[in-house]
């Protein structure tokens, strides 16, 4: 007979894991604290302990010093929303709201758990330097987003000792929520329908996993439509100023386009200023389509057309995946793909 949720999720201790794996408590403690290399614990033992930890649904006990021990007490789950300083704050707010709402709607799946929510930020490429990330000292569940390729490599080779869901990144061993990989192609279609033929994509450097996918699918769609690739306008970063500088350079060197796709709305804002500064109009001379990162896209001048995921959906789906892991434990990673939708506004009006 299946155990009830409250029985299945009673607190798992280091001793429980040691007994299940047939190893010493010291070995379990070393592995859970990512100190197995210096303690010279074999990879076979490390894998055995991690498998037992996952199967039993172990969570680092952040409140051990403050709460009494015992299997009947409430779990204190500290959920970390982890994002880079460079990310749009509007995206963070939607994800946090989704997490808050999902906890409130968790019902029986989260019975017996108390939740705290914290926001942790890192500089792009420096996720590995975040305190407590490898040990669970500061939080024991996380949603991670806006990582660079360097951060993704770190996640791929690391083992985080708590449930994790990634947003718009697909990395083996982690559950994730990602946008439709054809998002860039959908943006190209918007420009095709606006009767634009000389197209470009504006992106930053380095490309993240998500922005690379947007660029690739846009380039593929343009090549399929016209038999030639779109032009690339490369900025040094994803910021508004970097996009402005890149667009100014492109136009100053004689660049000529009638349609532009920007891989974030912040870059669209920078491009807007450059285009207007050069005496060109939107959409008369250049139609522009963005992604939907900003809630203020409808208030650009002119309002920006976007192709992307409704921001609340990311928060909702990522939170559901995380609560699923917390409630059941030991589950295989899942990938949820969310479709993108175009929202057409004046920036891509037909000529």
Give a verbal description of the structure.
This protein folds into three domains: 5-56, 434 Repressor (Amino-terminal Domain) (Orthogonal Bundle), CATH 1.10.260; 75-179 and 311-340, Rossmann fold (3-Layer(aba) Sandwich); 183-308, Rossmann fold. It has eleven helices and twelve strands. It has helices spanning 5-8, 14-21, 25-32, 43-56, 89-104, 149-157, 183-193, 209-226, 240-252, 265-277, 311-328; strands at 75-84, 113-122, 141-145, 164-167, 175-179, 199-203, 231-234, 259-262, 287-290, 305-308, 335-338, 341-343. The strands form two sheets. It has a six-stranded parallel β-sheet with strand order 2-1-3-4-5-11, covered by helices on one side. β6, α8 and β7 form a beta-alpha-beta unit.
Topology:
Elements: H1 5-8, H2 14-21, H3 25-32, H4 43-56, E1 75-84, H5 89-104, E2 113-122, E3 141-145, H6 149-157, E4 164-167, E5 175-179, H7 183-193, E6 199-203, H8 209-226, E7 231-234, H9 240-252, E8 259-262, H10 265-277, E9 287-290, E10 305-308, H11 311-328, E11 335-338, E12 341-343
Parallel strand pairs: 1-2, 1-3, 3-4, 4-5, 5-11, 6-7, 6-8, 8-9, 9-10
Antiparallel strand pairs: 10-12
Helix pairs in contact: 2-3, 2-4, 3-4, 5-11, 7-8, 9-10
